[in-house]
Specification:
This protein has about 325 residues and is an alpha/beta fold. Helices cover about 30% and strands about 15% of the residues. The strands form two sheets. It has a seven-stranded parallel sheet with strand order 8-7-6-9-10-11-12, with helices on both faces. It is elongated and about 75 Å long.
Length: about 325
């Protein structure tokens, strides 16, 4: 085997097979020596640092923290490919300073995430999880078989959905809402115009919406965007859905609003710290639907993400353009 082949570290097993059979990693193995983490869960900081010290490439997951200290400890690293759309787990500034190109996997998970967002919206609106729990725990008895006020929820048709962030996923959710006969309003920092969406300022979206679905990226400007003030601006009958990143929503303020009746319900697939802590007050509230960060969790989508992450890392190690690059300025100045 040639001695000048680059070394690539893959921080977890990837789903799916290559398009022509075999392993999804086969295209990468053609050009690099691949080392896959085989431990339980994600590699810790020490294991990741050790594995990357002699590596030129990293294929990471959103559970891997790639911070400045790690980047500075890995002198040979020149390509990072994340099997995710969001890259808030990577210090892009430190990577760019070092000339490390960073790739991600946008586009392929748009529909899967939009489907889950709308599924969560329906589940919270119609109190499906509460109903499921009611049946499983044995409360559905003959004397309480049915009554007019049983599990009253919220209608969708004719109601207003507010979409925060009008990127591909936000637009996909808006299209699904149109199919349910909903009015769709939206906000984005660029105030971009989107067909079928009435673009408004953030306070107007919050005040007018019966449902608010979060689809902005996590950045310093959006961290805590939905906090006490934003939640207070919403209707008490409103429902909040978040499938973006947990840090965008102030979970303490949300829990307080849900407990006091200042907000009807919420449905969350992401949290500031994952997994959600056992002591989180959100766990004890009946009017919140909780999911374990499963927005892209379909066989087809996760396999497509894996293939794209592999393709990005392969291209970067070969000095070729990445299919999706989040810091293209590194390539432009090289």
């Amino acid at each position: 085997m040639p001695q000048n082949r680059p070394r690539a570290f893959i921080s977890g097993a990837l789903p799916g097979r290559a398009l022509a059979g075999g392993s999804v990693l086969d295209p990468l193995r053609e050009v690099a020596d691949c080392h896959v983490w085989e431990g339980q869960g994600s590699p810790g900081e020490g294991a990741l640092r050790e594995a990357l010290h002699e590596s030129e490439g990293l294929l990471c997951l959103l559970t891997d923290r790639v911070d400045r200290a790690l980047i500075e400890a890995c002198p040979r690293l020149r390509v990072i490919s994340s099997c995710s759309v969001g890259v808030d787990h990577i210090d892009l500034g430190a990577a760019s300073e070092r000339g490390i190109v960073v790739g991600n996997t946008p586009g392929v998970l748009t529909d899967a995430t939009a489907d889950l967002a709308f599924g969560l919206l329906l589940a919270a609106a119609r109190r499906l999880v509460e109903g499921d729990r009611f049946v499983r725990e044995g409360h559905w008895r003959a004397e309480r078989r049915w009554y007019p006020s049983m599990f009253l929820g919220a209608d969708l048709s004719g109601k207003t959905l507010g979409v925060l962030g009008l990127g591909p996923i936000g637009r996909a959710v808006a299209r699904r809402a149109a199919g349910f006969g909903m009015r769709v309003v939206g906000w984005t920092r660029s105030m971009r115009e989107v067909e079928g969406v009435e673009t408004l300022a953030l306070p107007e979206v919050l005040a007018q919406s019966d449902f608010v679905s979060v689809h902005v990226a996590l950045a310093e400007e959006t961290r805590g965007l939905i906090g006490e003030k934003a939640i207070a601006a919403m209707k008490p009958t409103a429902i909040l859905i978040n499938t973006a990143r947990g840090g965008i929503v102030d979970e303490a303020a949300l829990a307080e609003a849900l407990a006091s009746g200042a907000l009807f319900a919420a449905a969350l697939d992401v949290f500031a710290d994952e997994p959600l802590a056992p002591e989180s007050p959100l766990r004890d509230l009946p009017n919140v639907v909780l999911a374990p960060h499963m927005g892209s969790a379909t066989h087809r989508t996760r396999e497509a993400m894996a293939r794209m992450a592999v393709e990005n890392l392969r291209a970067g190690l070969l000095g070729e353009p990445l299919a999706a690059c989040v810091n293209p300025e590194v390539i432009q100045r090289s």
